[in-house]
Design brief:
Blueprint lengths: L5 E11 L6 H10 L12 E12 L2 E12 L9 H5 L4 E7 L4 H4 L1 E2 L6 E2 L1 H11 L7 E6 L10 H11 L3 E4 L8 H10 L9 E4 L2
Parallel strand pairs: 1-3, 1-4, 4-7, 7-8
Antiparallel strand pairs: 1-9, 2-3, 5-6
The structure holds guanosine-5'-triphosphate and magnesium ion.
Length: 200
């Protein structure tokens, strides 16, 4: 690396899962360190960009994480393919008090059910011939109600080549930074993520 230069990586991360599991809340916690009890469903999708610097000794990396937050409601299903296309990483979010968010949730607007496995399949179909690293996030760990065991989570991860799984809370912040730190590390070991060099 030339002196005075730093590596810049851009990573498109898609955040998917059933409605009301906390996708938007996790992004808000990570980016603004805030949490709200109020539920305001995402309409269509939102994009939030977070830039971070990671230094490994004398080498500094600048990472631009574009977080694509998809509405969980199925009436936005027509957006899925274009949303998922070109993803460099995916976060699949479920909620520990809501087993349907993992095993299939019926939508209020239709009879459709999308399971965690369906999300994984859709991510793969939208990105043929590429491996998209996937994280499974079991959110709302602050709640006493926990319907999903560690062994069930591990089974899903083993069956679907999931890179990492965390229990998180957007409310308390538990493990939220860890999830996004895994994301930030992904482009550093992949050479096909958009990459450029510029003086700091
Ligand atoms: N207790 C608790 N509540 C949470 C947590 N994360 C989110 N919530 C609440 O769950 C509700 C839904 O959160 P959102 O972040 O809007 O969920 P979403 O997955 O973005 O939902 P859609 O946009 O409809 O797909 C809100 O009332 C949040 O306050 C959490 O970690 N713990
Ligand atoms: Mg949302």
């Amino acid at each position: 690396m030339m002196e005075g230069y730093r590596e810049i990586y851009k990573i498109k991360t898609v955040v998917v899962g059933a409605n009301a599991v906390g996708k938007t809340s996790l992004i808000r916690r990570y980016v603004t360190h805030k949490f709200s009890e109020e539920y305001s469903a995402t309409v269509g999708m939102d994009i939030t960009v977070k830039e971070i610097d990671l230094a490994f000794g004398l080498v500094s990396h600048h990472i631009v994480i574009a977080l694509h937050d998809l509405a969980g409601q199925y009436r936005f299903e027509s957006l899925h393919k274009s949303f998922l296309k070109g993803a460099d990483a995916a976060i699949i979010v479920c909620a520990q008090d809501d087993p349907e968010s993992i095993f299939g949730k019926k939508d209020i607007h239709s009879d459709m059910v999308i399971t965690t496995n369906d999300w994984i399949e859709r991510i793969e179909m939208a990105n043929p011939n590429t491996y998209v690293p996937k994280l499974l996030v079991m959110n709302k760990s602050d709640l006493d109600q926990n319907e999903i065991s560690d062994s069930e989570i591990k089974k899903i991860c083993n069956e679907n080549r999931i890179l990492a799984a965390y229990r998180t809370s957007a409310k308390t912040g538990e493990n939220v930074d860890k999830v996004f730190n895994v994301i930030a590390g992904i482009p550093l070991i992949r050479d096909n993520v958009k990459f450029s060099r510029r003086a700091p």
